[in-house]
């Protein structure tokens, strides 16, 4: 790392060739760069992201289309800040060349001068400023990188400051997975409760009408017809519950998304189709499980036993 754009791109190639290094990607910068935002004179902190950094930024897109920023293009992205809000579609003019904000990230590289943070691709940055050297060189290493390779990396860095974040990254990853396990564990418990509730409701309903099912069998109703009746009851319960839950859930989801995400980062609310499909699949599987047990129990009971069931 260097405070100026003085790191030779050739250094990135040399470090990338070291054993145990996955890849390297550099960042160029211009802090307090004179610019115009939507025609108003101001300054910005202008950075470049390599393709690997742009790929990693996909999970932080709050609004807009990140794909437009790749390569030598007329687009850039903005890092969200409460103090300096930029939206998709805003224009930024640097050295007489205008870029359009294609997307807004919820997180990313921070501002040094306090100005809005604008990020473009390396090719676009070079076209705007003429810079080719890096301010920051990121190195992504394997878990088992050797100490000899690390020492060689330090030697190649020369007088540039080197920050080793392996231990910090390990702690962050550990915390991230603990949070994910806790969140998905909670969702798994809720899903299990849902399945058990559907199965229990159908089972209780069948048990309460055992004598009626016995009477129907006594007058000639076949086992598969009994199964269809139980299935119709299960589907009715499941459909009504699913529709009610989706209507209320989507309304709450839209409200929370609008208040927390759109208000701060912009963007458009979209129906979470993948989550809805997963919910419908879970309910469908629950219906099959709920029908199978009670229907088999009724079919296997003698007709006299079902009629005399209390």
Describe this structure in words.
By secondary structure, the protein is of the alpha+beta class. It has 2 domains: 157 residues, no CATH class; 136 residues, no CATH class. The strands form 2 sheets. Strands 2-3-8-5-7-6 form a 6-stranded mixed β-barrel. Helix 5 packs parallel to helix 8 and helix 7 packs antiparallel against helix 8. The protein is built from 9 helices and 9 strands. The N and C termini lie far apart (80 Å).
What class would the helix/strand composition place it in? alpha+beta
Percent helix among the residues?
40-55%
Q: In percent, how much strand structure appears in the residues?
A: 15-25%
Spatial order of strands in the largest sheet: 2-3-8-5-7-6
Average pLDDT, all residues: 82
What attributes does this structure have?
310 residues; alpha+beta; six-stranded mixed barrel; two-stranded antiparallel sheet; 19% strand
């Amino acid at each position: 790392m260097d405070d100026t754009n003085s790191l030779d791109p050739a250094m990135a190639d040399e470090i990338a060739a070291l054993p145990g290094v996955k890849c390297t990607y550099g960042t160029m910068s211009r802090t307090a760069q004179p610019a115009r935002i939507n025609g108003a004179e101001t300054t910005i902190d202008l950075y470049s992201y390599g393709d690997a950094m742009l790929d990693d930024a996909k999970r932080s897109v709050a609004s807009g289309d990140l794909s437009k920023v790749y390569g030598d293009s007329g687009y850039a992205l903005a890092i969200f800040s409460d103090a300096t809000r930029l939206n998709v579609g805003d224009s930024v003019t640097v050295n007489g060349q205008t870029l359009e904000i294609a997307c807004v990230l919820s997180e990313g590289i921070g501002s040094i001068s306090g100005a809005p943070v604008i990020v473009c691709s390396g090719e676009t940055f070079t076209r705007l400023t003429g810079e080719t050297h890096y301010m920051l060189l990121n190195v992504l290493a394997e878990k088992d990188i050797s100490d000899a390779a690390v020492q060689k990396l330090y030697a190649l860095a020369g007088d540039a400051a080197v920050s080793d974040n392996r231990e910090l990254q390990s702690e962050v990853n550990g915390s991230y997975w603990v949070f994910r396990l806790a969140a998905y564990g909670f969702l798994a418990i809720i899903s299990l409760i849902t399945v058990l509730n559907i199965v229990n409701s159908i089972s209780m309903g069948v048990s309460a009408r055992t004598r009626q099912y016995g009477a129907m069998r006594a007058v000639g109703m076949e086992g598969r017809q009994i199964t269809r009746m139980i299935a119709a009851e299960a589907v009715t319960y499941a459909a009504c519950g699913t529709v009610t839950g989706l209507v209320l859930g989507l309304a709450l989801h839209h409200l929370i998304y609008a208040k927390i995400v759109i208000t701060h980062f912009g963007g458009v609310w979209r129906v979470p189709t993948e989550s809805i499909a997963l919910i419908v699949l879970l309910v469908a599987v629950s219906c099959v499980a709920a029908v199978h047990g009670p229907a088999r129990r009724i079919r296997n009971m003698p007709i006299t036993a079902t009629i005399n069931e209390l």
